[in-house]
Amino acid sequence: MNKSQFLFVINEFPDIGNTAAKVEEGALSDPRTACFYARRTIELLIEWIYEHDNTLRRPYASSLSNLIHAFDFRELVNDQLLWKFKLLKDLGNKAAHRKEPISKGTAVLAASELFQVLRWFALTYGQKSQDVIGLKFDKNLLPRVRDFEEKTQEQIKNLSLQLGQKDQELKDSLSKNTAYQKSLEILKKELAKIKQVNQEKYGSEKDLTEFETRKQYIDIYLEEIGWQKYKDWTEEIEVKGMPNKTGLGYVDYVLWGDDGKPIGLIEAKKTTIDPKVGQQQAKLYADCLEEKYNQRPIIFLSNGFKHFIWDDLNYPRREVQGFYKKDELDLLIRRRDIKKNLNNLKINQEITDRPYQQRAIRSITESLEKQRRKALLVMATGTGKTRTIISLCDLLIRCNWIKRVLFLADRKNLVSQAEKAFKKHLPDCSPVNLVKNKSGEGRIFLSTYPTISNLIDNQFESGKRRFGIGHFDLVIIDEAHRSVYKKYYSIFEYFDSLLIGLTATPKDEIDRNTYGLFDLDIGMPTDEYSYPEAIKDNFLTPFKGLSIPLKFVREGIKYDELSEDEKEEWEEIEWETEEVPEQIYSGQINKILFNSDTVDKVLKHLWEYGQRGEDPDRIGKTIIFAKNQKHAEFIEERFDKNFPHLKGHTLRVISHAEKYSETLIEEFSDVNNPLDIGVSIDMLDTGLDIPEIVNLVFFKLVRSRTKFWQMIGRGTRLCPNLFGPGEEKKFFWIFDYCQNLEF
Q1: Distance, CA of 17 to CA of 7 (rounded, Å)
Q2: Taking residues 491-507, what's their average pLDDT?
Q3: Would you state the pLDDT for residue 495?
Q4: Rounded CA gap, 86 and 708, in Å?
Q5: How far apart are CA 325 and CA 468, in angstroms?
Q6: What is the pLDDT of residues 103-118, one digit of tens each?
Q7: Average pLDDT, stretch 19-34?
Q8: Could you write out the DSSP letters of every residue in 418-452?
């Protein structure tokens, strides 16, 4: 075999380099395996970068797609490199999920692009970067192995699972290896210096791709989403009517509908050229095609790694992550004739009959009619955000603006709750909960962020990607805020759809970045209905706040100031240090459980002053917001010791740690069930709709305004006849033991 072209990586980063060599070895003899190892190489490389580069923060979700799309990683690499990472990821997925053969040309492209990625990697982190300057990939040096047995798609899939399991075992082992962690910290500091020197010397070094890859990029992505060459698309199509000497032009790609008319065209530029420069040329091609076929195609501009769509009868140009599937593009064309004016149809009052809900819907539809593709709706918790958005979906569907909707929430129980609401108010749209039914089909899809992210990244049907960029016409974000975008940027970058965000955070407390994400001026949401307005209009219940600051939360704990019993407890705690500390500062409090005396006093105070329901012997429905699982369990333990006559039925911990937590929520929601106090670790903080709640206990620090207003929303709902016939809930208590109200 010829000397490996990846030797420059093998010598310095053997794990990464040896995996890359498998791409080289199999490109001409086993293309499927070569593409799989191309993805595995960048997976190892990206993991190495996140582990060794101090400037990168690992995103909340650790799938390869999220690691690539994370803000810090995108800051590290340029757009062209980013697209190479994405291409290699997708080719690896294709190898594992598509049963159809993978061509040698595709595998050669993978080897070439991987070479460029590894070249950048060595130029950035290598100690012998000078040796990489001038290196070029030569496809003619790829080895030709005879009598080579190719792996099947099923074998590759199994190999992927096996290697993934080994990777996780190694990661778990190293995380517990103290010596390794110490050496890693030293290495990080050394690499930071190497990286700085390399960037100063070689930061401007350009890619040395030998042959044109633009066309191969475009062909691969068209095939992946189901377009068939020669049948559905053709290249270099001659058109007449161009403003040049011959009057002729040649369209790079024309995408055809089943009726033989053009539904799309692609103007392709070299990878080094901004595709936007071809916009006018593409417009003139569209003019020529429209003149001949009496149908104007959708325009795409692409250089193979950067793409724009221009539906110039409806919207200005915008960047997208690829091309539309055939049926998605065909629907865009048909919609030109079937769309109705949104203001001509009435809002369904059986779904939303309150004036502020109808105003919110009209505010959004007016914005959409003005060709704005994003909207932000601010509505206080309990005023019917979900019903409002369902009513909006109903109107958009009836006006033929949308066909499929994706509703996103950050927790499974919120997805289930929204699913029930859609089934109740829009049953004909067959709502699909992707968390429970990943292969379901309908018009309304509901999902958590991790679920849809994994489906985008991994799921194929009959060898084709299931969700194209145009699969959803509308994406709805429940509780939209900046952190959602930071964690799950790739989702919103992937889908080319209308986008509507919902939030209960007051408009003046929404950060400027969230407004920027929805292309809105600061403090100017598309529509707002605030908590004070809702109280004034008698649609929500006000609260009364009791701030009972606990001294140790504010100032910390000193051993000398504890009682003898507390000192005994203090000494029995398993401290992380060898000696028992004499003082714990306020910032360290969250690392330990609160002491028994404090918890007992909080529970006694709640029991004496908390509102009761119709039965004076029972405390009204109450949520205690605890710091963590251990804290919650400790609260439950102390409650049972102080109130043994209640037999463990009145207070329960409700968290994701409980396998049957949904049944606990059902019991807590039942006014006749003795479960009156739910101790929440995030699970009851948002989305819970129990009008009977009359007491909220803040037994933890909350420093997020968004989270704080979500938590307060658990008590705001109206509840007629709560204390007997004609006696409604007039307010709810907030017992704040951690100075959240002051903050």
Answers
A1: 7
A2: 91
A3: 94
A4: 37
A5: 6
A6: 888 888 899 999 989 9
A7: 91
A8: HHHHHHHH-GGG--EETTT-TT--SSEEEEEHHHH
